[in-house]
Amino acid sequence: MLQRLIIKNYAIIDHLEVDFSGNLNVITGETGAGKSILLGALSLILGERADPGVLFNKEDKCVVEGIFQVKNNQVASFLHEHELDVEDQLIIRREISAAGKSRAFVNDTPVNISQLSSLSQFLVDLHQQFDTLELGNADFQREVIDALAKPSALPQYQQLFLQYQQVQRKYKELSDNRDVANKELDYNKFLLDELLEADFKENEIEDLDGELQVLSHAEEIKNTLSRVYFQLKEDEQPILQQLKQIQSSLLAISSFHKDVPAVAERMQSAYVELQDIAGDIDRLSDQVQYDGARIEQVNERLAQGYRFFKKHGVQTTAELLEIRDTLEQKVAGVLNLDDQLASLEAEQARLQEQLLQMAETITIARTEAAVPFERNVNELLAQVGMPNARMKVDIVTGELNAYGQDTMDLLFDANKSNQFAPVGKVASGGELSRIMLCVKSLVAQSVHLPTLIFDEIDTGISGEAAKQVGIILKDLAKEHQIICITHQPQIAGKADAHYFVYKDAAAEKVRTSVRLLTLEERINKIAQMLSGEKPTAAALENAREMVR
Asked: What are the residue boundaries of the RecF/RecN/SMC N-terminal domain, all occurrences included (predicted)?
């Protein structure tokens, strides 16, 4: 529960500290005194957006601090999950600098606004003047029924539904890819078939180009090789024979000079090397033959290769083979897409079957919860001055969605006419306020929210209806901390703690102040709410009776 609220430099509040009771806290005051400003400040520590325009003193920072007494496992889990200090007392602080920069802290540890907003869901339910519009919201209506039904299958269903959506997205993505790929498939297959038919080998075109050079110059090559071979071995004085004679001459004088044997040995090596060269030249000469038919074949193959080079914008056989491999992968990928889509389709069907089974159990739980909800809310409506009003829950089973297969509508009939219509369309403002109070009082019994805050929940009601609203709030306050801003004396009379908001003019500035009223002050203020600024004796007696 909220133990203390501290506000500094916010709107027309200079400095304010309010200690709340754990039961029914009522806040009253004249219109414009600043009652809703308190809730505006409170909303900052609940994660609402900060507006630097609310600073009372534009040169100083605004600070709003809430001190909560926490006995909630969900809060403890949240603090553990976000690595925040877990203590019995939870201190949430929000600061807005003069420059407009906002900072938030939980137990003095900085947090972001998203974390603050998530944490606040476990601490406070804040109902403001125009929140009655939520009654017409489908999500709010579903949350109300689920809070009462507590469908145990819903968490597992939602996890499974996420998987189902992922499979659906993947199926659509692959299906779209297949459609695009199919448009390219025929062309890619044509290109691939061309390359496969051509059947180029590694470096083939480069090798053929070299072979063509040899074939085209076969006669010149053979003549040159023959001439060189003749000079080395078959001339009148062959070079090899001359080298042999030179080596013999060197060996003859090798005993006369110490360096000559080394020269003779080198000459021998040169002789052996030239002999090997002569043999290679002879073999090469035998291999080189002019072949017109082969030249024609090579030219045709090269022409084919160069056409592919030009067509695919490449310059080497290796690049051409790489394109062939890529085309093979693309064509195979398209053919494999059908198998993948079939697999995903089967997965979708399997998940859908599981979801339908789980959704059915969720629908049953909601349908069962709707019956006592209708009965209880109708009883409460009679209690708050709407004896002829009826509420009905319309649950329609349809397509699977993130919360099951149901769409829900709260239908309302104000006059026992059996002509039910969506509550958001047919209920008046005063009726919506009372309906919302009845709904929240029922939900509060199922959902553990330590603090419920109502900002003028009594809009559009008075008299006996206001009295009954006070009774409901008093009953709620047995299990929950209630903070209620009201203009109704019947509600104020039920308070465990009554706070009065007023404006105080000092140093040429108007400030909002709050004080906790004593018993006699309460009686006087309630009497003023009944009869005006100067209450009559009857009003004072009536107020005293209300407080009792």
From this structure: 1-504
